[in-house]
């Protein structure tokens, strides 16, 4: 089932997610719905807060990036097969050079900005079968994971841009929270929720 994506301005996007265990109700269905919602919105990642659940869970499917002609064959191969659910993840370390990349977010449609992040991460997490993993990622994969991880920490990519850029975006962000935007996927806006 395709779920509405929570828009900028909703307090759930600012909550630090709570850990879940294997008895979390209907987890398989939730994961299935999150994948379907993410693909419907043409996303490469989706975190549970973006569908209104303040829990430590996010998905990543980096395969759309593998179609980028500017990448090496090795990078394309790494991205092409990358599809994972991360449950109760913890970034252990962020290392390497900071680099900028233009990021967007399904909760903040039509806003893209350059964000600096460290190149390499080490992360521990549980998969959908609650098997434990500890892995390192770099480059674009690390960035997508960092972006989704921020969501379960109550952080948005717009928090990582300069105060000048934030001021320039203020009107657009306000319009998103009021539902004055067209997205080609289902969304739920905080201002509209208040009116009901």
From TrEMBL:
Q: What is its EC number?
A: 3.5.1.88
Q: Which Pfam families match?
A: Pep_deformylase
> Per its UniProt entry, which superkingdom is the organism in?
Bacteria
The name under which this protein is listed is Peptide deformylase
Gene3D superfamilies (UniProt xref): Peptide deformylase
The cofactor note from the UniProt entry for this protein is: Binds 1 Fe(2+) ion.
Instruction: Write out the residues that bind Fe cation.
Output: 105, 147, 151
Q: Which reaction does it catalyse?
A: N-terminal N-formyl-L-methionyl-[peptide] + H2O = N-terminal L-methionyl-[peptide] + formate
Cite the entry's keywords alphabetically: Hydrolase, Iron, Metal-binding, Protein biosynthesis
BP GO terms, sorted: translation
According to its UniProt record, which protein family does this protein belong to? Belongs to the polypeptide deformylase family.
GO MF annotations in UniProt: metal ion binding; peptide deformylase activity
| Function statement | Removes the formyl group from the N-terminal Met of newly synthesized proteins. Requires at least a dipeptide for an efficient rate of reaction. N-terminal L-methionine is a prerequisite for activity but the enzyme has broad specificity at other positions.
The active site of this protein is located at 148
Cofactor(s) needed for function: Fe(2+)
